Amino acid sequence: MSPADRRFFVLVHRRVAGLQPDVAQALLRSLRIIRESLSEAELARLIADGSIERLIAEAFSEQALDRAFIPLRQRLRTTTERGFRYATADLPRGGKVDGVLSVAFDHLSPKVLDALRTLDTRVLASLKDDVREAVREAVRIGLENGTAPRTVARGIRDVIGLSKSQIQEVQNYRDALSGVAGRSVKDYALRNRTVDRLLKKGPLTPEQIDRYTDAYRKARVAQNAATVAKTATLDAYKQGQALSWESARENGLIPDGFELRKTWVTVGDNRVRDEHVAMAGETVPFGSTYSNGEDVPGESTYGCRCVSRVFVARAA
């Protein structure tokens, strides 16, 4: 990695880190809206009828989840705009012509709308699938255990924000708190460390088990939100960056005899995908795709930390 690429990579990720908490909070707010929108009585009726797919279709429809995720969608759009504005400082003459800022984040621009729709689809589709799969798993476990429909319905709120596998993880943690053989609370990094001290004094009460299981569940949901926010924020920032440079080109900020180019920049650690390691340092014209077919690094791979460094160079 060249010194210029390294400086740029560090700068982008520092900016993104500052934006992540707001995205995580917006996601947690959306998950809370989903929980609060659920009718326990209606869920119980559908569970009792064995109408699991109807439950999913009605309570967790595209329309219902779209409404719930409005806070997250709005925050992602704001983050994309922030990415646009941050990148403005990197533009030729700071994005200004005769001292006047000539680039702007146009919410009605077809390119901006396309970028936002792409971001929505990329982030929200996965989140919606996770919500539905978690609910299916919770209902399945409840029915297999012979749990009353009303109790299963009440528990659905608790799995919103967890993945399918994490539902079992929370149950395993409860077992550990209960002293089930083969389970140890020390295997769970997100636990409230108070339980270590309490367990040294003897078994926990049912109330304590409920309280600390719930605390662990909430910590897991918060951790999930932070993880999703990290990827979504960087994706939004990269979209904003690309739109900013596109606006600069459209507004004639690139001097005659020069052109825009972009270089694929990776973090350079052992977590980078092999195919992205091979992309490191690849430079192409700004309006072209990289050799892997991507316009923005990571647009077809989830969790990619790679970025583009765009710059002005003499035309070939």
Please provide a written account of the structure.
The chain has 316 residues and is mostly helical. The chain folds into two domains: 198 residues, no CATH class; 62 residues, no CATH class. It is 63% helix and 7% strand. The strands form two sheets. The protein has a three-stranded antiparallel β-sheet. A two-stranded antiparallel sheet has the order 1-2. β1 and β2 form a beta hairpin. α5 packs antiparallel against α6 and α6 packs antiparallel against α10. It is elongated. It starts with a helix and ends with a strand. The model has no long low-confidence stretch (mean pLDDT 91).
SSE diagram, text form:
Blueprint: H1 3-37, H2 40-48, H3 52-59, H4 62-68, H5 70-88, E1 96-97, E2 100-101, H6 110-144, H7 149-159, H8 164-178, H9 194-201, H10 206-250, E3 258-265, H11 274-279, E4 283-285, E5 307-314
Antiparallel strand pairs: 1-2, 3-4, 3-5
Which descriptors apply to this entry?
single chain, 316 residues, mainly alpha, 2 domains, 3-stranded antiparallel β-sheet, two-stranded antiparallel ribbon, 5 strands
Please tell me the total number of domains: 2
Give the overall pLDDT as a whole number.
91
Structural class: mainly alpha
Q: Spans of 5+ residues with little confidence (pLDDT < 50)?
A: none
Order of helices and strands: HHHHHEEHHHHHEHEE
Spatial separation of the terminal alpha carbons: 23 Å
Report the helical percentage. Answer: 55-70%
Shape: elongated
